[in-house]
Write a structure and sequence with these properties.
Number of strands: 12
Radius of gyration: 21 Å
Helix content: 40-55%
Order of helices and strands: HHEHEHEEEHHHHEEHEEHEEEHHH
Bound molecules: guanosine-5'-triphosphate, magnesium ion
Protein name: polynucleotide adenylyltransferase
GO molecular function, one term: metal ion binding
Organism: Sphaerosporella brunnea
Cofactor: Mg(2+); Mn(2+)
Number of helices: 13
Subcellular location: Cytoplasm
Strand content: 5-15%
């Protein structure tokens, strides 16, 4: 016999399925927009090569994972060519590139108080493309490229990954809880939350843990370890997604979304747990990680001056899959966590989003 709860769950999941299928047709950016972004990337590459002829500009983030929505920015990393030999020459590059971009007519600004130097720039609307494009350029950031490929590999394992990411991103943007600069979580953070749910929580799992697959014998050390400054990171994961067995989980997208909301509303221990997708089981404790009190630490700006980095906060603890000392949830401040990422959304919206079919249509427009 079907219990009342099971029937209720099934109805909510059905409604979410209807919502998701309409949304997915609307959210993905049109092909023309993607091609404008790729063209801008080509133009930027040419500009970078004026500074260093064999420099590379490598995209990462949603343009590569396929998780882009209409408002997505371009993320890319500048790798200087072999002409740049000394650390001093490298240190000068961000401000040289900033100047060059400004000369080329872009609105560009170098931020040095961030964790790593970054140029934020905007391409103004043009006659061909009426929408402005935002672009972030980072420097020598291998790990961002690596974790982008991890996300892409997970997306290749099961078609529901991308669908779920697009729906959750749509919802978080509508809810104004996808603004790391304003106290809430980055898109990358939401993707890690989704992966944790699909790898560790839903049964049977939708995804295997790619970081815990057997390492093939002929794997070189470079494929396992990455050295950055004084730190060595374990960056290995299985990219051989072709040989991964398809999931035994037959849930619809609506059922998975329903389960995701349910998990983060009622089951996940926000106060004591750390999401860690590299770990068996997917969870660590804040206590064991020492992620209990907010900290601030000294850091250097590109010009070598000492500064204080933004405080590390552990209200919401979400471990980066490779840079395990980095809390991706650090951007969530008090109001952002309790009024937003933790409470507002998961409790209230689960009820709203999963209400009647008529309600779903209304929420789509109102949320
Ligand atoms: P949209 O730009 O919102 O479409 O999403 P996105 O998928 O590009 O994600 P986002 O811009 O948040 O992050 C881009 C990439 O930055 C991620 O894919 C990661 O590779 C990298 N990254 C590494 N650490 C962090 C972090 O702490 N916060 C964010 N935001 N990104 C990180
Ligand atoms: Mg992005």
């Amino acid at each position: 016999p079907v219990t009342h709860y099971e029937q209720f769950f099934a109805e909510q999941a059905f409604n979410l399925d209807q919502l998701a299928s309409t949304l997915l047709n609307e959210i993905a950016p049109p092909e023309s927009e993607i091609s404008f972004r790729r063209k801008l990337l080509q133009d930027l590459k040419r500009i970078c090569q004026q500074l260093s002829p064999t420099a590379k500009l490598v995209p990462f983030g949603s343009l590569v994972t396929g998780f882009a929505t209409a408002s997505s920015d371009i993320d890319c990393v500048f790798f200087p060519g072999s002409e740049v030999t000394t650390e001093d020459e490298f240190t000068e590059l961000p401000s040289l590139l900033e100047k060059k971009l400004q000369e080329e007519g872009f609105n560009a600004q170098l931020l040095t108080r961030t964790r790593v130097p970054i140029i934020k720039m905007v391409q103004k609307p043009t006659a061909e493309n009426p929408q402005e494009i935002q672009c972030d350029i980072g420097f020598r950031n291998h790990l961002a490229i690596r974790n982008t490929h991890l996300l892409l590999s997970y997306s290749e394992c099961d078609a529901r990954v991308k669908q779920m990411v697009l729906v959750i991103k749509w919802w978080a943007k509508k809810r104004h809880i996808n603004s790391p600069y304003r106290g809430t979580l980055s898109s990358y953070g939401y993707v890690l939350m989704i992966l944790h749910y699909l790898i560790n929580i839903v049964q049977p799992p939708v995804l295997p843990n790619l970081q815990l697959q057997r390492i093939p014998e002929n794997t070189s050390d470079d494929e396992i370890y990455h050295k950055q400054g004084e730190n060595i990171y374990n960056i290995w994961f299985s990219q051989d997604t072709e040989s991964i067995q398809p999931s035994l989980n037959t849930s619809t997208l609506g059922e998975l979304l329903r389960g995701f909301f349910d998990y983060y509303s009622y089951k996940f221990g926000w106060g004591q747990s750390v999401i860690s997708i590299r770990t068996e089981g997917g969870l660590l404790s804040k206590q064991d990680k020492g992620w209990t009190a907010a900290k601030s630490r000294a850091a250097n700006t590109v010009d070598g001056n000492e500064t204080w980095e933004v405080k590390d906060r552990y209200l919401f603890a979400l471990e980066d899959p490779f840079e395990t000392s980095h809390n991706v949830g650090r951007t969530c401040n008090g109001p952002g966590t309790y009024g937003g990422v933790r409470r507002g959304i998961f409790f209230d919206d689960m009820v709203k989003l999963t209400g009647s079919i008529a309600g779903v249509a209304r929420i789509r427009d109102e949320l």
